[in-house]
Amino acid sequence: MGSTITDAQALVTALRSAYASTLIKLKIIDLYVVFSLATVLVQVIYMSLVGSFPFNAFLSGILSCIGSAVLAVCLRMQVNKENKEFKDLPPERAFADFVLCNLVLHLVIMNFLG
Amino acid sequence: MASTASGASRLPLAWLRLLLLGWLFAVVSQTTCASNGLQPLSDADREAVAGYFTADADGFYGSLQETYHALRALEILEQSNVESQKICDSLVGLVQAPHDSVEDAFHVVRIAEVLQCPHGAEVAKVIVPSLQAAVEKAKSLLELHYSVATIAIIKGWSSKSASFNVALSGVFSSLKELAGPDGKWHYTKSSSESSAKAAGLYTFFSFPTTAIAYHFKNPSVRGLQIGHIKTAAIKLFDNLESHDQGVLYFQESKDDASSGGGGTLEATWAVLRGSAALAAVLPAKLKVKVEKVFGIAKFLLTPGLALNATEAFYQLDSLSVLEEYRPAVPVSVQTSSILSLSSNDNLEVAVTTVLGKPVSQVKVTLVSAHCIGADAPPVWSSQNLNYVENSGKYVFHFLSATTDLGKYKLSLEVCSVKSEGDSSYTSGGPVKSDITVISAIGISDVQLAVLDSNTGISDFSAVLEYGKDENITLSANHLQKLLLLLKLTSPSGSPFNPQQVFLKLVHESHVEHLYLVKSSAKGFQLTLDFLGLVEKLQYLSGTYNVVLIVGDMTMENSFVWTLASLDLDLPAAPEGKPLPPEAPLEITARVGSKPEIAHIFWQPEKRPPTLLSNIFLSLTLLPLIGFFIGLGYLGANIKLFPTTGLPGAAAVGFHGAVASILVLYFLFWLKLDLFTTLKSAWILGLGTLPPGHFILSYLADSSAKQKTA
Question: Which residues form the signal peptide (chain B) (predicted)?
Fold first, then answer.
């Protein structure tokens, strides 16, 4: 029991120190993802309180946050220099894709919002 | 011109052929009508039309022309409440006032003629000088018409008639210039379209012109012009437009409309007046097809034709022309529709003109009379009817002792009695009409009996006599039968089979039951077996009225006769479901208003309280705030944001364009629809591309440079 706790603590510390060395750019993107997911959480709590009457509104709110979180994750993958898969992709191009996909996603969301 | 000489000899044969064709056409067109369809001017129409004319304080009816229309129309309607003295006195004053147009003189003179004013010579003295000048300088059809027609009316009042001759010679050449080749005429030399109305007016005043020529015995004028005018007049009637049911009329042309024409009524009136005037002066009759005259008469007698005073004048004047129309006078033939054997009616046929005056110079023949429904030979054929002076009708003794009851189809023929100088009358072909022969039917041997169901022995029986009110009471129970016998005879003695013979039982609570009484060789018989009828009668015991109903179209004395009152004793209704008696429905229950329906509408969904929603709205914004705080904590900056030059502008442009798209989305959520949003998004997207591409490629280049450097 004690070993698991100490193991967990050691793990967290290791993660923290490893994380500190990531680029600011990537940390910004991670922060954005966390922000999106927090918004989702707030919406779900609200829905559980008052019921899902305008269901389409609920869905569009949730999908907006989750969609943009997913797109941010894709951006992070493409921008990360350590990722061999996207070596030849310039980060500006990835960012442009991110912006475009977000705009399309939000058009659909707005239509569904009603 | 050259063809008229030979044409005159061919005309009689052609006219015969036309007549035959006319008859054939008329026969074919009669298949659906019961009578020949021409009804004289009805009283309702007369009243309506007379109501259009209301006199002013000074006795006039508006302008001079309107006054003339009113006076002439009221003269035709035989209404004498016009202030002729007042009008005549003011006419002289009107004519003395200086006036330029010959039209005013024309109307004044016409009014004086209609009212038969004694001031004729005074009026003529004043008008004559200006009239001669007007005739010489008249160029259009209307101007010629007014001046010549005025001359025609006042020639009898003035002693200066010889001087008109000179003026008139010029008139004929002007007339010739306005004539067209095919019976149509122009208003002025320059107008291109010709019209039936102008044609009518042409002949309308060509009569006064030619009559004046005759009067002054001007042989050169006479020979030249008459043939030309005659062919023109006959060609006029080729321009007739037709409507359904044989109605014919003249259509006005654009010229008429632009000169303020009165439409089809005015055109028709003009042609009729003109052709009548011409026919009055020609030595031979004007050959116009009979059915054309008939069709025009039908048009003029359309109910509710005239909508205002002017139209009323045209209609009435046209009808008065038709009353004495030289080619043929259309007559209306009306027969009596019901003949009663018991009062020994005669068949009466009223032959009247279109205005309702009886015509006595025709021969009316009953061609045939068939009984409808039987294939028997005609009851009558080729019988002449006699004219009765007092009633103005043609009478025939149709009924005899052997005439059957029922409907008959009659075919009548109306021919003119040939005598010189009289008009010929036309009924538009053979006249078909239906009459019904009715009579009082004899009712006899009426017997009402109550019989025992099993044995058939009558427990009660009564013999009733029609017409006598005997209050008979019967009583029966469910084990008995009610028997009714009766005989119906027609006046010829044979048994009569009416369309309706019913027996009705009416309960005191107004519940009714109807039974058909069947006929047999021995008469009519009905047996009501109460045992079988108990359920139908809904177990209702009590007093019933026994009513006999007999009726038929040919029966003069159809009746509803309460025979007796019946005390019916039926067993009680079985337990469980007492049948409610069906009282006859009140009319209001069936067509009155139903009870109001209270609709239940869709209730809107329950929404959460506003406060809660607002709290969560602010909670949603918290992560966003956290994001910005986190960004500051991470040390994110925008140091690389280009501030100067083109990159700066492109960067600002790119961010601005994206922001505008987001604003568009916000508007889309609020009020726009998808299509306008897509259109605008498409445009804004195109606007985002150049700055975005530039700035991003610039940043990519600068970071690549940094790497290599």
Answer: 1-34
